[in-house]
């Protein structure tokens, strides 16, 4: 045997062998030919390697090819013998150790595979396939923590690869077709390259292909469960859709892997909040501040949770701490003002006025103006209050896209679609479950009060404003945008009995994650669902629909002076919110005509004036017996996430009914937009009835 000749180095011997062409080959060419045969004909590669070894006994490259060919042919014991002998002879050959490890793995010897791979990586730390193999071998031996470290090392090795660097640059330049072709070739060659797989998922996400991105990232995590960056991207994509519960599972794994990561803790807590797990989220936030994480946003998020849970003193303290750390944090000031039962002081006003100059972000500046509006309102300075509300609304309106014409058109289309003959033609179809109770209307119309009353009943669970019905409706609308149908009416009319049942069952399945108490009935308080009452009637014909309605001037002004965290884009202009209210009244009136009795209307002022009678009527419509606790709803300690969270934790009071009148001198645009809807209230004007 030759004494340790360099691996992959040939000598100029002349030879021929099985499968060689008629002409003679140099040793280098023969080795290259044998190596090339491995992928398509390992038996021929084995013959070529052995012919080389006959001419040059002990040649390291030929022995390596012999061992590889034997492994591919399934003769693992012979492969192990050849490769073990070569590894002893060539102790600094990382490739030989890697091949030996593959044989050990296939023979069910993961511990020996780990030893060989660790030796290989000690020689060649950027050996990507070896890191992948080591992660798998470690998992087989039960060393999950070490396997996750190997996953991370594999990713680290891959990120230095020039092919992936070039692909990442192409992605950031939005050359998506180019980068996908590069990554597909890379993954074909290295199917366990987690870094390439993650990048492949990110490319899909950047192109708006969320389902494909999720599938690719899940594949990445099958290959490398310890790849935290891939899991984090997966969580952030999944939380955009309906899979929030699944996203929480992955966020929990992230935090288990890195328990000291503040970012992962915040990500998990945010998902728990979305799923209604307020106390669990609070535990995370309280744990962070106990660890000394003294960040404004952490305190702000803690304040949101404490508010939702009804811990007002703790919420105030948290909000106060957030603005002490960052006086220009408009969201902190607004959150404090938005407790409704808290009055900001003259010192607070001075601090906010001083902070105005340092705020460059329009959203933060907008929230600061809303807080100043509330502070001046509490101080009885209506003109200054209105001025700041107007400035806050103007900033907020500037940053959003809202088309009032589309809302008006959709309301008219709804009236044209959901006629009595059409609804009658679908009688008996749809999912027959009566679980959901939908509370619809406008925000600030008393819907939270109605929800609190109903959720105080022993048979009804309150959840939150659920987006699921709107997502189903948006999916139907997208079929028009994609050109499949000419109009939304055509989409709705195309739904057969099976499709209607399937959509109803989908809604129940999607919302199941929010039902924590095991009660048969539950509340969906998304106010915007008034736009979809016809769809509700089709897919869930036995569901209860309650329309919470308040005087248009009071309701719209209250909505206009409320900064909403998301949605409710119509509320930032007095004319637009008045028009929206009018469209809502018109559509609901049309539905009342075509489906009499399908909707139970709760007039806020009547609920305030004669609570017991209205509560009894409400419960009767829902189909549950009267319970005294529904009258003592303020004792219900359930989590409440809306702007009225503090108000519904005290008995009904009448002060807010006509509160808007002190601002009447500046509300002409709202009054003009409402027109006869205001003067006819609580009745519907003749032209809409």
TrEMBL record:
<dbReference type="Pfam" id="PF13181">
    <property type="entry name" value="TPR_8"/>
</dbReference>
<dbReference type="Pfam" id="PF13469">
    <property type="entry name" value="Sulfotransfer_3"/>
</dbReference>
<feature type="repeat" description="TPR">
    <location>
        <begin position="194"/>
        <end position="227"/>
    </location>
</feature>
<dbReference type="InterPro" id="IPR026634">
    <property type="entry name" value="TPST-like"/>
</dbReference>
<feature type="repeat" description="TPR">
    <location>
        <begin position="296"/>
        <end position="329"/>
    </location>
</feature>
<dbReference type="InterPro" id="IPR019734">
    <property type="entry name" value="TPR_rpt"/>
</dbReference>
<keyword id="KW-0808">Transferase</keyword>
<dbReference type="InterPro" id="IPR011990">
    <property type="entry name" value="TPR-like_helical_dom_sf"/>
</dbReference>
<feature type="repeat" description="TPR">
    <location>
        <begin position="94"/>
        <end position="127"/>
    </location>
</feature>
<keyword id="KW-0802">TPR repeat</keyword>
<dbReference type="Pfam" id="PF13432">
    <property type="entry name" value="TPR_16"/>
</dbReference>
<protein>
    <submittedName>
        <fullName>Sulfotransferase</fullName>
    </submittedName>
</protein>
<dbReference type="InterPro" id="IPR027417">
    <property type="entry name" value="P-loop_NTPase"/>
</dbReference>
<dbReference type="GO" id="GO:0008476">
    <property type="term" value="F:protein-tyrosine sulfotransferase activity"/>
</dbReference>
């Amino acid at each position: 045997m030759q004494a340790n000749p360099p691996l992959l180095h040939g000598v100029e011997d002349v030879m021929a062998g099985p499968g060689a062409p008629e002409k003679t080959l140099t040793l280098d060419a023969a080795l290259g030919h044998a190596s090339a045969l491995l992928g398509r004909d390992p038996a021929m590669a084995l013959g070529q390697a052995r012919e080389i070894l006959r001419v040059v006994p002990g040649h390291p490259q030929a022995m390596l090819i012999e061992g590889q060919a034997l492994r591919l042919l399934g003769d693992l014991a012979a492969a192990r013998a050849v490769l073990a002998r070569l590894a002893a002879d060539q102790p600094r050959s990382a490739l030989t150790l890697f091949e030996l490890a593959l044989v050990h793995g296939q023979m069910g010897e993961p511990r020996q595979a780990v030893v060989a791979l660790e030796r290989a990586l000690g020689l060649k730390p950027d050996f990507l396939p070896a890191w992948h193999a080591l992660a798998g071998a470690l998992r087989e031996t039960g060393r999950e923590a070490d396997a996750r470290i190997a996953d991370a090392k594999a990713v680290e090795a891959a990120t230095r690869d020039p092919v992936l660097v070039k692909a990442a640059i192409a992605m950031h330049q939005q050359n998506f077709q180019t980068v996908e072709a590069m990554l597909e070739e890379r993954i074909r060659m290295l199917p366990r390259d987690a870094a390439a797989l993650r990048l492949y998922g990110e490319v899909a996400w950047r192109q708006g292909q969320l389902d494909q991105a999720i599938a690719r990232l899940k594949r990445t995590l099958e290959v490398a469960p310890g790849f935290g960056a891939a899991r984090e991207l997966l969580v952030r994509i999944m939380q955009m859709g309906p899979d929030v519960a699944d996203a929480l599972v992955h966020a929990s794994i992230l935090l288990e892997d890195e328990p000291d990561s503040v970012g992962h803790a915040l990500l998990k807590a945010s998902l728990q909040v979305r799923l209604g797990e307020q106390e669990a989220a609070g535990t995370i936030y309280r744990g962070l501040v106990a660890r000394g994480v003294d960040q404004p946003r952490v305190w702000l998020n803690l304040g949101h949770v404490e508010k939702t849970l009804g811990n007002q003193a703790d919420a105030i303290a948290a909000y106060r701490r957030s603005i002490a750390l960052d006086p220009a944090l408009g969201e902190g000031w607004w959150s404090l003002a938005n407790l409704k039962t808290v009055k900001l002081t003259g010192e607070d006003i001075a601090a906010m006025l001083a902070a105005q100059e340092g705020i460059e972000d329009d959203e933060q500046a907008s929230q600061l103006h809303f807080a100043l509006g509330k502070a001046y309102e509490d101080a009885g300075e209506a003109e200054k209050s209105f001025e700041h509300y107007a400035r806050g609304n103007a900033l907020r309106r500037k940053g959003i896209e809202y088309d009032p014409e589309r809302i008006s058109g959709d309301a008219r289309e709804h009236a044209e679609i959901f006629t009595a003959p059409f609804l009658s033609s679908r009688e008996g179809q749809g999912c027959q479950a009566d679980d959901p109770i939908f509370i619809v209307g406008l925000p600030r119309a008393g819907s939270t009060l109605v929800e609190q009353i109903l959720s105080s009943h022993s048979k009804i669970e309150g959840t939150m404003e659920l987006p699921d019905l709107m997502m189903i409706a948006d999916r139907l609308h997208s079929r028009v945008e994609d050109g499949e149908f000419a109009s939304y009416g055509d989409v709705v009319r195309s739904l057969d009995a099976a499709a209607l049942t399937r959509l109803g069952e989908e809604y129940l399945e999607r919302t199941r994650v929010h039902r924590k108490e095991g009660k048969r009935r539950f509340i969906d308080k998304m106010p915007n669902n008034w736009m979809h009452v016809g769809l509700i009637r089709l897919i869930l014909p036995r569901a209860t629909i309650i329309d919470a309605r308040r005087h248009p001037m009071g309701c719209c002004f209250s909505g206009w002076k409320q900064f909403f965290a998301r949605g409710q884009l119509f509320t930032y202009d007095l004319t637009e919110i008045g028009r929206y209210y009018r469209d809502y009244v018109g559509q609901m009136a049309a539905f009342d005509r075509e489906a009499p009795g399908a909707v139970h209307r709760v007039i806020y002022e009547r609920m305030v004036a004669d609570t017991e009678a209205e509560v009894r009527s409400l419960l009767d419509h829902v189909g549950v017996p009267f319970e005294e606790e529904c009258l003592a709803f303020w004792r219900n300690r359930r989590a409440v996430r809306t702007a009225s969270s503090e108000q519904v934790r005290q008995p009904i009071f009448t002060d807010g009914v006509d509160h808007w009148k002190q601002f009447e001198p500046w509300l002409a645009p709202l009054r003009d937009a409402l027109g006869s809807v205001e003067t006819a209230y609580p009745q519907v004007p003749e032209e809409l009835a």
